[in-house]
Amino acid sequence: METKYGVITIHRIPFTNYSVGMFIKGPKPTQEMLYFLKKLAKEKNLIFIKLEPNVVKSKTSNSVIQLFRKNGTVPGKTLFTPTTFWIDLTKSEDEILKNFSSKTRYNIRLAQKRGVNIEEDSSQKAFKKYLELTFETAKRQGFYAHTPKYHRLMWKHLHQSPVTNHQSPIAHLLVAKYRGEIITTWILFAHDKILYYPYGASSDIHKNVMASNLMMWEAIKFGKKIGCKTFDLWGREPGKGFTKFKEGYNPQVVELLGTWDLFINKSLYTLYILAEKIRWTVLRIKSKL
Question: Which end of the chain is flanked by fewer CB atoms within 10 Å, N or C?
Fold first, then answer.
């Protein structure tokens, strides 16, 4: 749901009348905002709302942390990494391109030379391919993906349905085609002059054409075209392959304010956290069987 402070997603807890809220990439918290969130939580029967403000951690962050603690907000389990990468889209294309690593620039030219084509494609056929590649990639790389239902709801509410105060959709689907076949898909979010890269998936075939390298470059140009000023690459984990890939574009490393849980019912919140720990333990055990 969209509020005056940003988009908040609500997730029902199975077999209960309770839900939890997720307020990700929101603005700098204020007392007025926290009052609003507490009221919303009570109206929607939420146990808590998880906050991950899109606010850079700095020397002035202590005032926000004090505000959180004053309102009964506690550090929570992270949804996303505490640091991320930003690319400044206010620079010219030439300035941005020359800052890439030589290997990244080479791979971009290679993809162009081999005929990879990047385009925005919001058709049902393209979205179906996005789902297919998402679960193919998750299985291949061994990570947990949201359910197909989640992705369909995300696409419905952030692309297909009108969004208040937005003349264009928040979610955009970019595809990379090679020889007429979609081999890479990315979903991008555009909100408040910031472009986000939350979801990407690719086929295990035709890896040698470097479609993902060209996709990133075209996403940067897409963000500039629609008036975004910053490209948030959505996460950074040192040592991981996806981090090394992003580093080739010479982005700025940014540490954010972190993850905070604004709970309404302390007892239920404690039970929820315990249940989540058990759930993840079971999932990790199953993944090793």
Answer: C
Per-residue pLDDT tens over the stretch 143-161 = 778 899 999 999 998 986 6
Reported as half-sphere exposure (CB side, CA atoms, 13 A), residue 9 has a value of 13
Phi, psi (deg, nearest 5) at residue 193: 70, 15
Q: Where are the alpha helices (DSSP H) in 71-147?
A: 93-98, 102-113, 124-141
Q: Which residue has the higher pLDDT, 18 or 287?
A: 18
- Percent of the residues in the chain that have a pLDDT greater than 70, as a whole number: 95
Residue type, 190: A
Tokens of 92: 């010219």
* Rounded distance between C-alpha atoms, residue 220 and residue 89, angstroms: 7
Q: What count of other Cβ atoms lies within 10 Å of the Cβ of residue 99?
A: 15
Is-contact 111 214, C-beta < 8 A? Answer: yes
Q: Which domain holds residue 274?
A: 2-81+256-288
CATH number of 7's domain: 3.40.630
pLDDT per position as a tens digit, 50-109: 999 988 998 668 899 999 999 989 999 998 888 999 999 999 999 999 999 999 999 999
Q: What is the pLDDT of residue 283?
A: 72
Distances (CA, A) of 7 to 21, 70, 140, 155, 179: 10, 24, 31, 14, 38
